[in-house]
Amino acid sequence: MNDLYHLFLRTEREKRLQQQAAQLSKQFQQRAHWHDEQAVFPFENFAQLKKAHFLSLTVPKQYGGEEISLYEFLLVQETIAQGDGATALSLGWHLGIVMNLAEQKKWPKEVFARICKEIVEKQVLLNSAQSETATGSPARGGKPETTAEKRNGGWVISGRKTYTSLAPALDYFIVSATIKETGEVGNFLIPKTASGLKIEETWNTLGMRGTRSDDLILENVVVDEKALVEILGSSQQKGRAQGWLLHIPACYLGIAIAARNEAIAFAKSYQPNTLPHPIAEVPEVRRKIAQIDIELMAARHFMYSVADRWDRHPDKREKMKEELAAVKYVATNIAINAVDMAMRVVGGQSLFASHPLQRYYRDVRAGLHNPPADDLTISIVASRSFNKNVGEDPTTSERA
Predict the structure, then answer these.
(1) Where is the Acyl-CoA dehydrogenase C-terminal domain (predicted)?
(2) In a domain, 393, yes or no
(3) Residue 14 lies in a domain
(4) Least CB-packed of 117, 149, 273, 370 within 10 Å?
(5) In the Cβ-directed half-sphere of 67, how many Cα atoms lie within 13 Å?
(6) pTM of the complete model beyond 0.85
(7) What is the pLDDT of residues 330-383, one digit of tens each?
């Protein structure tokens, strides 16, 4: 694994984080098949993550967290995904949301401070519950049918959310709802202990089965007035630059690396009786592995360079939306292709249910359905392309 990181580990802290993640990842890998086959949430993995204090990695230092950078976050995600993609993607939602909340400072300070303290001291888990059947992905701007009504000094919330990753393990749900009185859309912080909140087990999918992205049902859930933590204005609905979402391509690149490693190990050890040597010496096999590595190099250098730019130039972040979307587009599609080529190297054995490559194949395809979707990326990049040329001075771009 180290040979893949010698160009990306720049500091002692990055080396430490990646090594810690690698140790956990190896243990997760041993259980990944069972969690996938049974479609159960990896509670054991998260118990280890909590013990290692990984849930507070993105909590600001002022609240006792590590406050890791986006670049460091991606190193962790990519490494853990090599052991278990579902665990990495699940962890990424929690860590990414905390990172985004710290950057945006949209929540009341006392509420965010309290949640951060709970994460540090109790390693609690939170995630957003935004998607609905009628609206689809929140990235497309649909208004939630889940409603919030002001009543007796508090809020009464009713609705149904889909794709609620980590559902059985969450301590808090960040639920989007349309406020009846004003028509505004707000985010509400709801604890799992709230009366009227329940999880319906609907997650029976082809890939990422261990995320347990079940449905969240809210039946007249009563919360206090402070549960409303944010009003989502037009800028949120249209979409702003969100660096934390790079945890998604990092996860799928990690899965692709695991597939690549599996294919190389197989090629080094498999020697049919028609050859005097392992298939690692067959030119076509070497070509396929080299093609995988070249594409992974391109995707990883792109991703990490964009993350580094995000970290070093906060003033330029709002102009990076297209680059962030493009990273996800490039990395996810390259990851899918890499897993496919790895299966071609291994051949028919990769189709057996007991072989990890078939899990990688199913898991990596889930990336196509994480935000932003390919068509949205193409749309926003095309809009920028036709609005002005890259590198052109906007003050001189008008033509008669």
Answers:
(1) 249-367
(2) no
(3) yes
(4) 273
(5) 8
(6) yes
(7) 999 999 999 999 999 999 999 999 999 999 999 999 999 999 999 999 999 999
